[in-house]
Amino acid sequence: xxxxxxxxxxxxxxxxxxxxxxxxxxxxxxxxxxxxxxxxxxxxxxxxxxxxxxxxxxxxxxxxxxxxxxxxxxxxxxxxxxxxxxxxxxxxxxxxxxxxxxxxxxxxxxxxxxxxxxxxxxxxxxxxxxxxxxxxxxxxxxxxxxxxxxxxxxxxxxxxxxxxxxxxxxxxxxxxxxxxxxxxxxxxxxxxxxxxxxxxxxxxxxxxxxxxxxxxxxxxxxxxxxxxxxxxxxxxxxxxxxxxxxxxxxxxxxxxxxxxxxxxxxxxxxxxxxxxxxxxxxxxxxxxxxxxxxxxxxxxxxxxxxxxxxxxxxxxxxxxxxxxxxxxxxxxxxxxxxxxxxxxxxxxxxxxxxxxxxxxxxxxxxxxxxxxxxxxxxxxxxxxxxxxxxxxxxxxxxxxxxxxxxxxxxxxxxxxxxxxx
Length: 421
Ligand code: HEM
Hints:
alpha+beta, seven-stranded mixed β-sheet, 12 strands, binds protoporphyrin IX containing FE
């Protein structure tokens, strides 16, 4: 059975590894929203929220957080100790701003924030446009009339090259960056295997070693990149240690592409499944307009790239008649909240001019996505350029979603340019 709801106990059994679920979780979310919007998820031992109102308010509620060990030790909380074989991964993770609460979070976020403000990011517009055209030239030259993988040849290189350039990592390192990142993010999956853990640990080690040597090189020869700027901060006082610098560069390099790839991939397929909307954007063309801004938000909402984020309970509290103790973990399903009919009219329809569009794809509160302006710009530029340059492109095979849950994206997207041979 894929999903079973016990209304009496508010308990749900839901198998995320069932391919019917991970290929289209939305009908199951809808059923949960109607019947049990707050439930105890049996397989994961977590109280879980699928309605927009709860997800959105808990993200902003400071009684919940991404860190717990600043308040109580794992032992005090009755949590098992971190196994020693996983230490290399958690040595990085514990310095990442995403896993910290104030004051450490405020300090670290403050140090990198400036480089990711919308005005700063806007300067990258020309570079991103050039990159998109170069990738399409390559697709045209190499594939001609044969098929190509939109995900591999267009959606993946754009964000990974852009974030690597921002930090100052050479483009030749892109294959390694992708391998390290894909392995490391598996640690955020539910139900991970020992093989996934071993690959994540090995990649953490390699990534740290690589960045340590890059940092040492930049100390001697500073450049105009984010790593050099952060080294300046590190050298100026006690505001940033080298371990923190490396952990947060890894966070930026990984977060800088993993979700954006899925918005581009899921979004392109959604457009082909809504031909009128596809025509609308194609006719509108590239450009920074209210329509293109709204269209980007709708792609972010419609097939949410990151479905679940967890929070620790930081103080005793009550929600919906349920008591929560400090150290309990809860789950927020962003992918469900973005299809909540109480907030979005016709939530299962892609409507590029949807307004208002209060989706929660970038989260909310103090951990609100730092890279949102960059992701938005990349989507706003790359989708219409693709549609304009390849007006006859077609999807050739029914795309299948990867068997992952936190990250919701397609394995591959086989397309043709539509040009006759
Ligand atoms: C469409 C693409 C993206 C989506 C959907 C996305 C989504 C998110 C979400 C939901 C969070 C908050 C997690 C939580 O509250 O638990 C987050 C945090 C973060 N994101 Fe993104 N992200 C995207 C792209 C990017 C990019 C391009 C960067 C580039 C640097 C980035 C960097 C970060 C960082 C550093 C954080 C942690 C912020 C903090 O803890 O204060 N993200 N992202």
